[in-house]
Amino acid sequence: MRAAQAFQHNTIVEKQQLTFEKDVLAGLQLQPKRLYSKYFYDAKGDALFQQIMHCPEYYLTRCEMDILRGQSEKIVQAVRRHAPGFDLVELGAGDASKSFFLLKEMLRMGVTDTYFPIDISPNIITQLQQSLPAKLPGLQVQGLNGEYMEMLQAAGQITAQQKLVMFMGSSIGNFTPAEAVQFCTRLRQQLRPGDLVLIGFDLRKNPQTILDAYNDKGGITRAFNLNLLERINRELDGNFDISQFEHYPTYDPVSGACKSFLISKREQAVEIAGQTVRFGANEPVYMEISQKYDMEEINELASRSGFRPVEFFYDSKRWFTDVLWQC
Ligand code: AVI
């Protein structure tokens, strides 16, 4: 890394650390106390999430892979009917294991050769830039490291092509329904008429199946939640005693909200960044929402945020859907 690049990188990291500290301290002043799941993903959290995706109970990844493995050709054909040439942008690209199938199909059909993965993690972007062109010869990877909306705007300045923006894996579920409307509205504002989005939604199903996916017997999801307390200890000079918090996932089949909490097992005081935070016995800390949708709710979200539903792709069990919307 050149000196100027290293300086810019360090400044971004310092800014992210300050925001993390501010969000943690402010969230723990709220009633009920709150920590934000976007902070789950440090190096350990990334590794734990990879393990979650392989848990027998966590059906979401397998369902979406089923769609992309089996229906990529159909998806690309549908996109091509609405946008003859386009660039693919992915929000939260991760290891691109899902977009891989679409990219392969797009290259085969000659509809695009440019992929803009957007991710908050610089490591992910560097890895994708290095590894993908070897796996998919002819593909141009233009990684964008930063916040989704800012980077989407940056992509808009690099290319005048129509866009297909992917937001996969039910990441939309990590917003409350009201936040999802705000997010999709902002997304719509960053796009031009005719651009398309492909969004993955986890569908409502047997409540126990959903709850089990967030309470795997191997305890990986529990470790994933507790890792945020460990991260606070590591990065914000905290002294959480992890053994004194319990993982408590819930699912409300009426609202479709699957929420996870950490419960303080006893009255305790924790030091974070020089401040004392007090927890009562059995006090919950709200950690994450993973909202489940039905088709009516998905269509309502599209219309409230200014998109037009084009096509729906389901896995064989109809547990998950990737939806194609157009601006
Ligand atoms: C990333 N996100 C879609 C996952 C989900 O299902 O809400 C995160 C996760 N949390 C617990 N398990 C998986």
**What proportion strand?**
15-25%
Q: Please state the overall shape, judged from the principal axes of the Cα atoms.
A: globular
**Computed CA radius of gyration, to the nearest angstrom:** 20 Å
> Whole-Å distance between the termini?
39 Å
Q: Oligomeric state of the chains?
A: single chain
Number of strands: 14
Strand count, sense and barrel status of the largest sheet are: 8 strands, mixed
Category by helix and strand content: alpha/beta
GO molecular function, one term: L-histidine N(alpha)-methyltransferase activity
InterPro entries: EgtD, EgtD_Methyltrsf_superfamily, MeTrfase_dom, MeTrfase_EgtD-like, SAM-dependent_MTases_sf
Protein name: L-histidine N(Alpha)-methyltransferase
Enzyme class: transferase
Question: Quick gist of this model?
Answer:
One of its GO terms (biological process) is methylation. This protein has 327 residues and is an alpha/beta fold. Helices cover 44% and strands 24% of the residues.
SSE blueprint:
Layout: H1 3-27, E1 33-34, H2 43-53, H3 59-82, E2 86-91, H4 99-109, E3 114-119, H5 122-135, E4 140-141, E5 144-145, H6 148-158, E6 162-167, H7 177-190, E7 196-202, H8 207-213, H9 220-235, E8 245-252, E9 257-264, E10 268-272, E11 275-279, E12 284-291, H10 295-304, E13 308-314, E14 320-326
Parallel strand pairs: 1-12, 2-3, 2-6, 3-4, 3-5, 6-7
Antiparallel strand pairs: 7-14, 8-9, 9-12, 10-11, 13-14
The structure holds N,N-dimethyl-L-histidine.
